[in-house]
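Researcher: Let's continue the batch. This sequence belongs to FAD/FMN-containing dehydrogenase, and it's 468 residues. Same format as the previous ones, please.
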Amino acid sequence: MDALLQSLADIVGWEHVLTRPDEIEPYVVDWRGRYRGAARAVVRPGDASAVAAVVRACARAGVPMVPQGGNTGLCGGATPLDDGRAVVINLSRLNRIRQIDTANNTLCAEAGCTLAAIQAAAEEAGRLFPLSLASEGSCEIGGNLSTNAGGVQVLRYGNTRELTLGLEVVMPDGELWNGLRGLRKDNTGYDLKQLFIGAEGTLGIITAAVLKLFPAVRQRTTAWVSVPDPAAAVSLLSRLRGACGDRVTAFEIVGRSALELVLHHMPGARDPFPGDGAWAVLVELSDTVADGGLAELLENELGLAVEAGLIEDAVVARSLTQMKALWGLRENISEAQRIEGISIKHDVSVPVSAIPHFLAEADRRLKEVWPDVRIVAFGHIGDGNLHYNLSKPNTLDNNGFIAKTGEVNRIVHDLVVDLGGSISAEHGLGQLKREEVLRYKAPLEMHLMRAVKRALDPAGLMNPRKVL
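Model: Same format as before. Here are the structure tokens for FAD/FMN-containing dehydrogenase:
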């Protein structure tokens, strides 16, 4: 009997130590199917103390550990390597809402809570937790924290880092750090929680978090708007924010190629404006006031934008069903792309003002080399984050194109950095960009990141060969 496996079973019970290949399979393949690893075992602890005990057992045995939540990541960060040495520590059983403090506007959730469950708990308490992703029904807050997830409401509320007040973390030696403080002001030294947010499990395992809550939204209005080009979209964003302030909750751009994939692959999807419009934006305003006249405000501003030549057409949702249908056109893009087949994906950010130049120049440079490249561009234009994905329409041609990923990345990422941007806006580095980041991070930055890793995880057992 393997001594480590027996130790793990003593902690969590044999029913939560998975070793058979068919049991392990779902935990060693990433959501996109791009990365496939192997694991010595998958262990499923049920609380933070069990996580700490599992980590201590693995650390004593010198065995690498891969923390994992809902396994919805896009960069292979939660997928073990293929050497089969690691133990995957799946946190899905840590799924309790520990506390809701409405006076303090905070919620304490364990790492295995799905994002949708946290949203529902906040809503039941008359509050809002604003982090919103297409995968919110299956992604878990521990993974959201570990990748500093963004989503569609960063424009108004910020990303996960800005929504977090405290953390509970199991350190690489198995010690449990309780930093679950729901304080907006705490100036007692280094803000240690920030080390773990966005670290992708390479410095420790997040087991719980204190999250910010906001007043419940009582009014929402959504519109699908056809714009002539990205420059017009940026101008429309500026106009709406000037007129509506923070009530502009989301502002998403969708290129025609992205929309066509959704229309082709997702049953029931319908084009709001059948035709050849090259670009659309999805706009959402929200307010805590029940009768604030948001629909009228949005319609008036869109009318003025038509007169200014910024938009070509617009439809404002008149019901919850229509609103969900419009959002479905945006949120189902990633799923439609997965069905369509593999592509070269880029999750980049640039200053909002630079988005039109990036899109025009990246298109030009790529088409000089690959004239028939299919460019699927969409994303959170309101905060400067674009998903810029490339493939060939023909499957046989696409196989050869995917082999050119390095050359494609040079074109896209060099331009992003020249514009003062980032090659990873919200998906993290994982395995996908571990080497790529070395081209763009300053040597001093990499030195400091490695120094932090050595200080907290000197044995290098926490999610090895991810990020660094």
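Researcher: Any comment?
Model: The chain has a mean pLDDT of 95.
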